[in-house]
Amino acid sequence: MRRLLPGVFGLALLCCGVAVAQEKAPIVLVLHADMSSGSAMAGEAIRRGALIAISELNAQGGLLDGRKLELVVRDHHGVPARATEQLPELASMPHLVAILSGLHSPPVIQNLPFIHEHQLIVVSPWAAATGMVQHELTPNYVFRVSIDDERVGEFLVARALARGHKRLGVILEKSAWGRSNEKALLAALARRNLKPASVQWFNWADADMETHLAAVERAGAEALLMVANAPEGAAIVRTVARRPPGKRLPIYAHSGIIGGDFVRQSGEALSGVDLRVVHTFSFLGNPSAKARAVAAKYHTLFGTQSDEEIFSDAGTAQAYDAVWLLALAIQKAKSTERPRVRDALERLGSYQGLVRTYQPAFTPSRHEALSPSDFKLATFNPRGVLVLSQP
């Protein structure tokens, strides 16, 4: 009997050690986004915002009595089929609490049944298609800390009309995101008893937009509503810039163009075009103490010197807020079980974030954290940096 005691005692210690290890297992968040293709800058901006928030939370001791947060990145290149292939791995990942989506909506929309079947919490710090968050699956596991197409459509139409442009052309990418925006833009026009001068569609990787732009011009458009990501948006800008100065249509753009290398791809054409982009947040000239503190951490973590070096800053800020909201939900749920965290996200109190003060961020009937009051227009300065326009 005495010879068994050391083994029993050792087994007890081993079991105790396993229990402690399980208690201190990391809390995993996954960034599931395009990290290497046309919208990779958006993915990297989200990654940086998430890492800043995680560094703050871990410096405070983590969550749930000392569990640290960890970010895992998976690259789907913006391709829905690739996202579908990767989701089973994510669903089986130990200690996974939530997924941060990237710039693209279709990888989420195509996989909504799987996401809800496996109770995967998805929080979008960028992707904007309305149907990604607003759908009939219940309970809803998708939340957004970003703009949404339905409201962006109203915002862009209102701003274009306010500047005196009465006949508006529309140009969109052929995707679920493009179709979401067509519905929103046409509805916003219809509310004013207006119709688009012309609606033009393009494919990913289209580099020649001459036919599309010529059709809009023949229809008598006075301005262009553009729904594009960086490569195709740059092609449109280059095409507009080839017109004589007095013939260049002003452009009101969705935020997709700022998720990639749009400035370099546009080249000198950018300075010759009247381009305004929907935006929510900028570190440039932002006097708030929180913005200054987060910008300082950004420079420390990523080796930048100036706020002008913080690219796609709305994506960074929205990802930062998204991670903090998830952390508050985990603390409120006192658990990392995804159904409990999901429920807690709908019952959070007030939180002062970077983009806004959330009062609260979500409710059982509203999974959109931002509102039209957060939308702004931005333009590119001579150095190609996005700056908020004056009201």
Automatic annotation (TrEMBL):
Leader peptide range in chain numbering: 1-21
CDD domains in the cross-refs: PBP1_ABC_ligand_binding-like
Domain Leucine-binding protein: 32-369
Origin superkingdom: Bacteria
Pfam families, sorted: Peripla_BP_6
Keyword terms of this UniProt record: Signal
UniProt xrefs under Gene3D superfamilies: 3.40.50.2300
Family: Belongs to the leucine-binding protein family.
Protein name according to UniProt: ABC transporter substrate-binding protein
Originating organism: Archangium lansingense
